[in-house]
Amino acid sequence: MSKNLAFEEPVVKLREKIEELKDIAKNAEVDMSEEIETLETRLRQLEIKIYSNMEPWDRVQVARHPERPTTLDYIQEIFTDFIEFHGDRYYSDDEAIVGGIAFFEEEPITIIGHQRGKATKENIRRNFGMPHPEGYRKALRLMKQAEKFGRPILCFIDTKGAYPGKAAEERGQSEAIAKNLFEMAGLKVPVISIVIGEGGSGGALALGIANRIFMLENSTYSVISPEGAASILWKDASLAKQAAEAMKITAQDLKEMGIIDGIISEVSGGAHRNVTAQSLAIKECLIESLKELSLLSAKEIIDDRYDKFRAIGQYTEL
């Protein structure tokens, strides 16, 4: 059962009313098709009104929805013959990042992504999707392997950030992230990154140095969480809603600023409403991007990535 968000309560109540009428019509053998059709029309109008006018904080809540599809959900829907690889060959295997090879449109591809859990037990196992340095080193190992065999790389970004604990710092968290940024910039194969939930801080950027960066419509991408920003700016985490509006963390804002290349539309109510339909939208985006990038040589791929990040930002000459 999906957990409801505050702003979508009117939609949820109307859906429940429609289901109630359908049950009555079925069990009592009463023709209520006209009433049901009227309510379904009203529901569609209400969904358009609510979901097309979401505020930044509303999108943050959708991005954090406990049933929002994860990397493994999309892998199952979009790819075939996925084989997961484990370990960084230095310390251990970090389950907050999953990666391996699969087939996409009958061609091999390397897939890497943050992985969080949906229930408490799995969240603890996955460290709530916050990787340790060995997770980023595993990701880099798979990227270099993909480069060796000429496979394109797809990264799914979905993390609050890299794990900030003492053990992670002792094992070189900052160095591991920095190494990923450096190495990804020079990869000779196409790299596509998609933010599917939260894209938080360097923990997200470590999988984000790509030729093409896309975001799901209700995902977020920022240097810090709204709560963290509010705590720093105003010494009050409860002002997170105001911070979310000021930080420009939504897909719409980032597309306007030229930081991402495109927005992948979500199904009405969010990706968690229909994983299969959402996966199809992602698949179509991947097909188009890979077709475009496959025409480039190794040098052109590196130059394309370089030019992309050089173009981000604005400056004024004095």
In short:
One of its GO terms (molecular function) is acetyl-CoA carboxylase activity. With 318 residues, this protein is α/β, with parallel strands linked by helices.
SSE arrangement:
Blueprint: H1 9-28, H2 33-51, H3 56-63, H4 71-78, E1 80-84, E2 97-104, E3 107-114, H5 120-125, H6 133-149, E4 153-159, H7 166-170, H8 173-185, E5 191-200, H9 201-205, E6 212-216, E7 220-222, H10 226-234, H11 240-247, H12 251-256, E8 262-264, H13 275-293, H14 298-310
Helix pairs in contact: 1-2, 4-13, 6-8, 10-11
Describe what you observe in this structure.
Its EC number is 2.1.3.15. Component of the acetyl coenzyme A carboxylase (ACC) complex. First, biotin carboxylase catalyzes the carboxylation of biotin on its carrier protein (BCCP) and then the CO(2) group is transferred by the carboxyltransferase to acetyl-CoA to form malonyl-CoA. It catalyses: N(6)-carboxybiotinyl-L-lysyl-[protein] + acetyl-CoA = N(6)-biotinyl-L-lysyl-[protein] + malonyl-CoA. With 318 residues, the protein is an alpha/beta fold. It has two domains: 48 residues; 248 residues, 2-enoyl-CoA Hydratase, Chain A, domain 1. The chain has 14 helices and eight strands.
